[in-house]
Write a structure and sequence with these properties.
single chain, 399 residues, alpha+beta, Serine Threonine Protein Phosphatase 5, Tetratricopeptide repeat, 6-stranded mixed beta sheet, 10 strands, 13% strand, flat, disordered N terminus
């Protein structure tokens, strides 16, 4: 998968992933947006809608037995297992579907999976919420353009109650506190906007630029706090040959969302298209300066490097993030993990000792247990550690 190595290598698009009834909590705001969009000639679909046939089928195959967590585990198996007892749901990039569409297509991206799982879980009276992993965005390339998506997943419970909590990420189930720490909660309304944003991007890629622009303008007007919408509206304008208008949108968005990386790439590109090289250089410099010392940016880059098994580079980025938040026990754990995986056992063990020096808590103890599983040598006395090779368990954990 190609990845941008500089802010201006490419345009950066941000996406994430009859007889009907919605499930779970009421979505008053989303329903109102759907009605308002319809009055303007836009067809925005409710991502959590399910027909009665689907509802009855899930009631029959999954049911209400057991605790909420037990029902959710049964639901994970139902979505993953092969027919006739399951959907055998498969990953398909660039395909954001409603819950109903995903059920019948049996495929889709992370947004499709999250829509389907949230709708079905709430149907079974299990309390769940959308979450997104913003520290490790998914990057992919199509037609010379780079796309970045904040990965969507589903959560039940909280990290402080690991025995009653669950994080479902495209069929992968986690409960460790450090896993939860990678994700941010997303309201149903924001998930609705992110879904429509993805659909608009798909329409843009399919050549329906006018509909994409109308959708993105509507979303920007009604959900101005979502940076992806501003970015993608500007990209539509750039593709339509309206670089000055796109630059205006992007400059305002950069001021409003100074830590949202794709905005800088597109703003620099727009400035160059209008012939303002001085502005392009200033935007590029500002973007690099702001992001280089921003903890979440460095954590993000560290996670990218760790997933690529570039452990030394990952350790460098985690250290930079730690310089702004030196007592963050989760950052310490990732720094230790990267140093140990890179073979820098001395520095890795120093970070482990810093974790041990933190006040006792469930999070601290869980992080130490996880590190011991991956790197048993952290408990080996002194010099014996130096002869231990990089462990197979140092493989990047799946977020």
């Amino acid at each position: 998968m190609a990845k941008p190595r500089a802010l201006v290598v490419a345009l950066a698009v941000t996406v994430l992933g009859g007889g009907c009834a919605t499930t779970g909590a009421t979505h008053t705001q989303s329903d109102r947006w759907i009605s308002e969009a319809k009055a303007q000639g836009l067809d925005l679909q409710n991502p959590l809608v399910l027909t009665n046939d689907v509802r009855n089928r899930v009631h029959e195959l999954v049911g209400y037995d057991g605790s909420e967590k037990a029902r959710l585990m049964k639901l994970v198996r139902f979505v993953s297992d092969s027919p006739p007892d399951g959907l055998a749901f498969r990953y398909q990039t660039q395909q954001s579907l409603t819950a109903e569409q995903a059920y019948f297509a049996r495929q889709g991206d992370c947004m499709s999976y999250a829509n389907l799982f949230v709708a079905l879980a709430r149907l079974l009276d299990a309390e769940v919420r959308f979450v997104r992993i913003t520290q490790l965005p998914v990057t992919w390339e199509a037609g010379g353009r780079f796309f970045e998506s904040s990965h969507m997943a589903v959560a039940h419970g909280r990290e402080t109650a690991w025995d009653r909590s669950l994080l479902v990420d495209f069929g992968n189930v986690h409960s460790a506190p450090w896993r939860f720490a990678l994700y941010d909660d997303v309201s149903d309304e924001e998930a609705f906007v992110l879904f429509q944003n993805n659909v608009a991007v798909e329409k843009m890629l399919a050549g329906d630029v006018n509909t994409a622009e109308s959708m993105l303008r509507f979303l920007r007007d009604h959900a101005p706090a979502v940076p992806e919408v501003h970015n993608n509206l500007a990209l539509v304008l750039l593709q339509s040959g309206r670089a000055p208008e796109a630059l205006t949108v992007l400059q305002a968005a950069v001021e409003k969302f100074p830590n949202f990386r794709p905005l800088y790439s597109n703003a620099v590109q727009a400035a160059r298209r209008v012939g303002n090289e001085q502005l392009a250089l200033a935007l590029e410099s500002k973007g690099k300066e702001l992001l280089e010392d921003e903890p979440s940016w460095n954590f993000n880059e560290g996670m990218r490097s760790y997933q690529d098994r570039a452990y030394t580079a990952a350790a460098f980025r985690f250290e930079k993030a730690l310089s702004a938040d030196p007592d963050n026990v989760r950052l310490l754990a990732w720094s230790a993990r990267a140093h140990l995986a890179a073979g820098d056992l001395r520095r890795g063990l120093e970070q482990v000792e810093r974790i041990r020096g933190r006040p006792t808590s469930e999070t601290r103890d869980t992080l130490l247990r996880d590190l011991r599983k991956e790197f048993p040598q952290i408990d080996v006395p002194g010099g014996a550690v130096l002869n231990v090779a990089r462990p197979v368990a140092a493989r990047a954990p799946t977020p």
